[in-house]
Amino acid sequence: MKAFYKLGISAAIIVGMLGNVQAAEWSDEQAEVWSAIEACNDHFREKRMEEVMDCIHDDFSGWLYSEPVPRGKDNFEKVGQYFLTTRDIVAGELRPIDILVYDNFAIIHYFYIEVMKDKDDQEEYNQGRWTDVMVKEKGKWRWIADHGGGRPD
């Protein structure tokens, strides 16, 4: 019950803090980039790793708060496969904060909340902030860099 209460309070605070952000009017370019972010995250949530990897540029470099050094595309795939075999993302939401588009690259800041279940059916609530850098090649937006992760309680 304590976890549920904590989840409810956190969600209410988040919605209150981000309410004005959602009111932003995105340009067509910004909306296209955000649509790519949502689609690639949906692939991950739905455990479609082949489609996820198609979202990752070959020169990708990402750095989670919890990692000592950045990781490349190969490590992203290994860790992603492990993650998806050990838990399910049962609920979640992405909230865009800022989307900057310059020709064929974009910088996207957003907040996420998610609920996961492990193999023992134990739920875990996570929230955090994320920055993605995407590059558009041959008409497709792909992650080339990212940084972020969960926030401590």
Order of helices and strands: HHHEHEEEE
- Coarse shape: globular
Overall pLDDT metric: 83
How would you write the strand order of the largest sheet?
1-5-4-3-2
CATH architecture descriptor text? Roll
The number of domains is: 1
Determine and state the CATH class: Alpha Beta
The DSSP helix count reads 4
Query: In percent, how much strand structure appears in the residues?
Result: 35-45%
Total count of strands? 5
**Rg calculated over all Cα atoms:** 16 Å
Terminal Cα span? 17 Å
Helix content: 25-40%
What is the CATH topology classification name?
A: Nuclear Transport Factor 2, Chain: A
Helix/strand-derived class?
Answer: alpha+beta
Written overview of the protein:
- The chain has 153 residues and is of the alpha+beta class.
- The chain has a single domain (2-150), classed as Nuclear Transport Factor 2, Chain: A.
- It has 4 helices and 5 strands.
- It has helices at residues 2-22, 28-45, 49-54, 73-86, and strands at residues 56-64, 87-102, 105-118, 123-137, 140-150.
- The chain has a 5-stranded mixed sheet with strand order 1-5-4-3-2, with helices on both faces.
- A hairpin with a 4-residue loop joins strand 3 and strand 4.
Short description:
The protein is an alpha+beta fold.
Summarize the topology.
Blueprint: H1 2-22, H2 28-45, H3 49-54, E1 56-64, H4 73-86, E2 87-102, E3 105-118, E4 123-137, E5 140-150
Parallel strand pairs: 1-5
Antiparallel strand pairs: 2-3, 3-4, 4-5
